[in-house]
């Protein structure tokens, strides 16, 4: 049978998210960013990212009920964790605004408007933190509450003002931050990974607004004599955890996306050079030694260097006349100019390899033709070598004028 009345706290208990899950996700984001933050410490944007992630981790560590009880016990002051957690949340909100202001205005020199905005944020949220501690001291002694302090003391003088102050400061920061992020998402020309990262950040800060709204609704309900404590004790914590996860992933995604894209690009370029690399291995009788721990970027660099070194040794055997005829032949076969140049270069390289295999190396090799363009276009030449039929057609057509001239003579 379906119960006629359902306690919302029982239902929401099924969706409880441990505070240590968002802490782990935020910690992972901080660890991913930390090497770059240390290496480029002078960058204000990276410092802001590091400070925000560190504060976010601290919020979830110290707001966990077990940590709240431990801090209260160690200090001997009931509910001392309240102003401490409220201060961390307020500092986190201020760091969110500082980050978006710094990030939105770029890494270059900050304008006077930006500096003024940053000073305003620091002054306002520092003042809020001081006021939180003053109000806590004015409230005097009270009974320890681990999970429902916001609603339990919603009508207690000074604690009431303290709770309202941190919730309003939190809501204002999240509202402004979400607004700035969504305005930025609509900007043209954003990298796709940055755009998705910003969308997740925006969703995270909107979730933070939901967190603040549930807390504030529960507190206001207490003012009117109603009991909606489940909004604060059961709904707000999982919403905060979800918000933290979205924000952490939003910071990780642009970094991880750029990393994966670079790796894919290096691997694709490495595979693209395989036909030309194999040809150069046949021509030189050696190859690049395999390195198990080499990064894709290093492997690509080593393959490019090897190919260019062998091409330089083949330069004296390159027939520039054959290259010109091959280019004209490729154009005559209907290939566009870029493809025609790649096919002509491939024909010249194949001919140089064959000529070198037939002709012994002179003791003092003469300087060959200029190979600057060939060394620059090794990717296009390697792509041309993938299709032997196209190269053979160009070689056959390029050989026709030379043979006809020889017959007429």
From TrEMBL:
DUF6545 domain mapped to chain residues: 264-385
Keyword vocabulary terms for this entry: Membrane, Transmembrane, Transmembrane helix
Top-level taxon: Bacteria
TM region positions: 15-32, 44-68, 80-100, 120-139, 163-182, 203-223, 235-253
Transmembrane as UniProt keyword: yes
Protein name per its UniProtKB record: DUF6545 domain-containing protein
Record lineage: Bacteria, Bacillati, Actinomycetota, Actinomycetes, Kitasatosporales
């Amino acid at each position: 049978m379906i119960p006629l009345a359902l306690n919302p706290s029982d239902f929401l208990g099924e969706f409880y998210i441990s505070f240590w899950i968002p802490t782990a996700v935020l910690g992972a984001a901080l660890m991913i960013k930390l090497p770059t933050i240390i290496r480029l410490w002078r960058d204000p944007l990276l410092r802001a990212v590091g400070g925000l992630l560190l504060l976010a981790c601290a919020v979830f560590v110290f707001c966990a009920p077990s940590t709240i009880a431990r801090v209260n016990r160690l200090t001997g002051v009931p509910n001392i964790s309240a102003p401490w957690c409220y201060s961390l949340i307020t500092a986190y909100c201020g760091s969110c605004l500082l980050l978006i202001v710094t990030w939105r205005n770029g890494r270059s020199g900050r304008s006077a408007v930006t500096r003024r905005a940053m000073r305003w944020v620091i002054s306002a949220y520092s003042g809020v933190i001081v006021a939180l501690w003053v109000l806590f001291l004015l409230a005097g002694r009270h009974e320890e509450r681990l999970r429902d302090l916001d609603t339990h003391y919603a009508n207690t003088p000074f604690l009431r003002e303290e709770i309202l102050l941190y919730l309003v400061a939190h809501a204002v920061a999240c509202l402004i931050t979400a607004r700035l992020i969504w305005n930025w998402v609509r900007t043209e020309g954003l990298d796709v990974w940055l755009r998705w990262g910003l969308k997740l950040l925006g969703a995270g800060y909107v979730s933070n607004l939901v967190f603040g709204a549930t807390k504030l609704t529960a507190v206001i309900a207490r003012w009117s004599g109603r009991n909606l404590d489940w909004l604060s004790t059961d709904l707000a914590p999982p919403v905060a955890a979800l918000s933290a996860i979205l924000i952490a992933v939003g910071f990780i995604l642009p970094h991880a996306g750029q990393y994966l894209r670079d790796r894919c690009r290096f691997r694709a370029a490495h595979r693209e050079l395989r036909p030309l690399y194999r040809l150069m291995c046949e021509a030189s009788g050696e190859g690049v030694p395999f390195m198990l721990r080499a990064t894709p970027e290093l492997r690509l660099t080593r393959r490019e260097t090897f190919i260019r070194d062998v091409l330089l040794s083949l330069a004296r055997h390159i027939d520039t006349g054959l290259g010109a005829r091959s280019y004209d032949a490729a154009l005559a076969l209907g290939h566009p100019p870029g493809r025609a140049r790649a096919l002509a270069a491939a024909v010249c390289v194949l001919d140089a390899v064959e000529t070198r295999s037939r002709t012994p190396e002179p003791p003092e090799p003469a300087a060959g033709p200029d190979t600057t363009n060939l060394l620059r276009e090794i990717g296009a030449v390697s792509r041309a070598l993938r299709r032997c039929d196209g190269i053979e057609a160009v070689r056959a057509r390029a050989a026709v004028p030379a043979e006809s001239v020889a017959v007429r003579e």
